[in-house]
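hey so i finally got around to running the thing on that chain from the lab meeting. sorry it took forever, my laptop kept dying and i had to restart like 3 times. anyway pasting the input first so we r on the same page abt which one it is
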Amino acid sequence: MRFSKVYKQIVLDNSFKNWKNLLAYYFQISKAHLLMLARTEIVPKSLAKEIAQAFADLENEKIGEILPEDVEDLVFLIERKLSEKIGVEKAGFLHIARSRNDIDATIFRMCVREELIEVAEELIDLVEKLSEKAGQNVRTVLLMYTHGQPAQPSSFAHYLLSLAFDLLEVLEALLLTLRVVNACPMGSAAITTSGFKIDRKIVSDYLGFLEPVENSYRAIVTSHWISMPIGCLKVLACDLSRFAQDILHRASCEVGIFDFPDELVQISSIMPQKRNPVILEHLRIRSSVSFGLFNAVENAFLNTPYQDVNENGDLVLSKFLGGVDVLKQALQLTKEIVEKIVVDESRVKELALVTGSTTTELADFLVREFKISFRQAHEVVSEYVKSGMSYDSLVERFERLTGKKFTLTPDQVAEVLLVDNFVRVRQVMGGPGERSIEQMIRTLGTRLKSCKQNIDSMKHFLRQSLQKMQADFISLVLNR
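ok and heres what got predicted. didnt touch it at all, straight out
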C-alpha cells in the first residue's frame, strides 16, 4: 500500500523519526512478551527460541533512516524484517495477544518514567544545593519584599529554604505521579485483552513496572500517564520562573542586594558600564518555554474522545520530551545561580534603614515594653516613619496617644531597629532565627532522604527487572 506523499512526509516520516528514539523500549517489550508467551506455553519453546534468535540478530541491525514507502510505522517494519529472517508464519506468533495500542502505551510510559526519574534526581540535587547554601548563610541578612516594595529583613537562609520546601513539595508530588506512570498496559491488546491465557504480570515484572494497569480499556485510553506528571512539571517551571524574576529585581542597580561573579555576567557591545546577569533571563526563558510545551500537551487532550486516539501518540510525547529537556536545563541553571549568587549585606542594611523596614519590630517592642495595644504602637511608629525617623516625634506621639512616659533613649531605639536584631528575635517556628533555620534544614533533610530512598529503590527495581529479562531472553536464545 502506498500512502499519500503529503501524508507520508508530514505524518509517517516524522513519526518514524520519533519512534527511532524509542526503539530500545520496543525491543525490551517484545522480549518480555515473547518470554511470557513461552512461559505460558502459548508459543512452543522451540519456536520461541527461533523467534528469539532472529530477534536478537535484528536488535543489532541498523534501522534505515527512511521509512519504506509501503510500511506504515516502525512496528510493521520490525515485523517485516523478522519475517524476512524466519518467515511470515513464524514471525507472526510474536504478535499473539498484543496490539500497537498496548505496545505504544507501554513504550510511552517507559520513556516518561525514565525522564521523570532524571527530573527527580535533578530536583534532589537542587534542593540539596539550596539547603547547603542556606546552612552557609544562616546569619546573612536579606531584605524581603512584598508587592514589589521593601517589607522586612530576614536571612538569606530563610529565603533559600522557602524555595527549597516549594521544590521539595514538587518532588514529592512528582514521585506520586511516577506511581501512576509506572503501571503496565501490555496485555490489554487492542482494547479487551485476549482469549489467550496470557499472564500480564510476567510482562509487567520484566519491564520494571509496579503492576499491570488493571482495566484494559483504561490502559489504552487514559492520558493520566502524561497529564498528571505535567501538572507537577508546570508548577516546577512556574516556581523557577518566579525565582528568576525575583532575583533579577533584587540584582538590579536600583536595588543591588544580589551580585554575581563575572563568569555569570555578560557585558554590552557598546555600553562600558553594563554588567548583565543574563543567566537569570535564560532561566526565566527556559521555565516559560517548558511551561508552554507542557500546556500544548495538556491542550491536545481537550475535547478528544475517551478512546484510543492519536493525541495519545508520538507527536504529543515528543513535545513533552522537549519540555522536559528545556526544564532540565532550567534546573541546571538554577543550581549554578544558587551556588554562585552573593548577598551585599551592606546594601541590605542601607536599604533597610532608609525604607524603615525594621519598624515592625519597634512597634512589637513598644507593645512588650509598655503594655500598650499593637494598634496604638502601630500608629505611633507609623507617625515616626512619616517624620523621617525623628526621635522627638516618636516621644511626642507616644506620650500623647498612650498617656505614658516614653523612657527609651535614642540609642535604645536605634538598637531595636538594627537589622540583625530584627532577625535575631524571630525564633518562632518557621522564622529566620538561627534555631528555626537549623530545624528547617533538619526537616528538609529528613524528607529529602525519603525521596532519595524512593528513587534509589525504583531505579534498583527497574535495573534488576530488566537484567532478569535480558538474562532469561539470552537463556531462551541459547536454549538453556
